[in-house]
Design a protein that fits this description.
globular, seven-stranded mixed beta sheet, 22% strand, alpha/beta, single chain, 9 helices
Length: 231
């Protein structure tokens, strides 16, 4: 169980806590995503897939694929998705026809430049070493291949920030506790502290080997989409 007095573990402890947490919440993960975002998460994933702008049949890896939401959206858009996650519980609960692989994001089981694109939905803050993960993403994506990364954000206007903060830090843990696991849904809002500021996040993506790195706010800033092209 996650110690609610220390919601932000580090290093190997973070990896263990995150894996255990996602194993526990897998059965109702999709349901809570839909409820807690008013189904906006569906449109955010569609926006990410559209931003890839790859040819039909392109081979796209969905990193931290969870239950396969992005894999299904990728397939619906004519791509050939492959899902990777390190949570056995999430992979067991997945609802997708895409091939699924259990692997660590810092050591992906793919050859150099084997993939046309890569997506990652709401997982950047859960990686222990984000820079290493992004470097590994650059290794497996071919030159001129595309990436689309989604994670939570924060609205820029003060009123929207206040509403978002109340919802994300009070309502999400409460509803998550009723329907799934209270400690996990307390961790998830707290884990936004792991995300670097926008400028630093874009710098890390660029340093990993991507160019034309761009940022787009989604849902009035409640989420963010980072795109880039493999150099």
């Amino acid at each position: 169980m996650i110690d609610t007095n220390d919601l932000l573990p580090r290093g190997a402890e973070k990896a263990r806590v995150v894996e255990d947490m996602f194993d526990r919440i897998a059965p109702r993960y999709d349901l809570l995503n839909r409820l807690l975002t008013f189904r906006l998460d569906v449109s955010w994933r569609r926006a990410a897939v559209r931003s890839l702008e790859l040819v039909s049949g392109a081979r796209v890896l969905d990193l931290a694929c969870g239950t396969g939401d992005l894999c299904r959206t990728l397939a619906d858009n004519g791509y050939r998705p492959i899902g990777v996650d390190f949570s056995a519980g999430m992979l067991a609960a997945a609802r997708t026809d895409a091939p699924l692989v259990r692997a660590d994001a810092t050591s992906l089981p793919f050859a150099d430049h084997a993939l046309d694109g890569l997506t990652c939905g709401f997982a950047l803050r859960n990686f222990v070493d984000l820079a290493s993960v992004l470097s590994e993403c650059a290794r497996v994506v071919r030159p001129r291949g595309r990436i689309a990364l989604i994670d939570v954000g924060e609205p820029t206007s003060a009123p929207a920030r206040a509403v978002h903060g109340l919802w994300f830090r009070r309502v999400v843990p409460f509803v998550g506790g009723l329907l799934s696991d209270r400690s996990a849904y307390a961790y998830l809002p707290a884990s936004t502290a792991y995300l670097p500021p926008r400028s630093e996040l874009l710098r890390i993506v660029g340093a990993a080997g991507f160019v034309d790195v761009a940022h787009r706010a989604l849902g009035a800033g409640a989420a963010q989409l980072i795109t880039g092209t493999r150099a």
